[in-house]
Amino acid sequence: MDDLIPIGRFSRMSRLSVKALRFYDEQGLLAPAWVDPVSGYRYYRRAQAGRAEAIRVLRTIDMPVGEIRDLLADDDPELTGKRLTAHRERLRARLAEQERMLRFLEGLIDRGGRVMPYEVTVKEVAAVTVASLTLRTSLAAIGADMGRGFGTVVSAIGVAGAEPAGAPFVVYHDVIDEQTAGDIEICVPVPAGTALPDGPVRYREVPGGPIAATVHRGPYQEISPAYHVVTGWIEQQGVKPAGAPREVYLNDPQTVTPDELLTEVQFPIDKAPG
After folding, report:
1. Do 44 and 88 fall into the same domain?
2. Which of 125, 216, 222 has its CA nearest to residue 166?
């Protein structure tokens, strides 16, 4: 008991707030050495400072709490090294994406805030039957959620003994930004009458009708100007949106570079102009 340190002193020693220490205890990362059964006050040992520092550093480099728990539970140095290497590769990919976005921003600034030229077309699209999965997501999680979501939909189609019957697309039912989560609907066209297995993936028909559309060429993260152009065109033409916008993915990100990606942004409208 002589080497026990109150949580306040351990917080100063470890440079982790009292709130963070309580959270890491709840997550099974760093439990107090002793908790007073009467007051509930938490005490730590000096020997725990090394683990606290490891947690602090790993959180600084954005390793998820669950992965930290697994890493610190490993007794195998080789497995620990593999976990750190995997996280290093994720950080490198994130850095590359951020550098690409900075180049995009520099180009936008050089053009005086003017967006790249997009040609807006109006066309009539037919109704399409799809395997559909609706997800609640956030701006930070949308990439990973879409990847898992498309995997879930394609798996359900396979169980049904069917094949995708067209380009996949996502319907954005809500505006999603840094402050606001929202619903997206992942859709993969399937033959009419496809009997999907019970589960979150459902069969439905997406209605057809007139749409205003443009094609974005380049990384998905740089698609916002295409939305600006189409929504501005809709306002200028005096027509009205008639449904949630969609992104139709015209080629496969696993077979082309980010600069070669083609995405059609579609806005259903109430009527063709003129």
Report:
1. no
2. 125
Q: Supply the range of the domain harboring residue 30.
A: 4-73
Q: Give dist(CA 19, CA 271) in Å, integer.
A: 56
Q: Are residues 227 and 155 in the same domain?
A: yes
Decide: 6 and 15 in contact? Cβ < 8 Å: no
Looking at the structure, tell me whether residues 173 and 40 fall in a common domain: no
Per-residue model confidence (pLDDT) at position 90: 84
Domain boundary among the residues 114, 130, 164 is at: 114
- 135 part of a folded domain: yes
Residue ranges of the chain whose pLDDT lies below 50: none
Looking at the domain assignment, is residue 274 inside a domain? Answer: no
Q: In sequence order, what DSSP letters do the residues of the chain get, joined into one string? A: -TTEEEHHHHHHHHT--HHHHHHHHHTTSS--SEE-TTT--EEEEGGGHHHHHHHHHHHHTT--HHHHHHHHH---HHHHHHHHHHHHHHHHHHHHHHHHHHHHHHHHHHTTTPPPP---EEEEE--EEEEEEEEEE-TTTHHHHHHHHHHHHHHHHHHTT----S--EEEE-S---SS--EEEEEEEE--TT--PPSSS-EEEEE--EEEEEEEEES-GGG-HHHHHHHHHHHHHHT--B-S--EEEE-S-TTTS-GGG-EEEEEEEBSS---
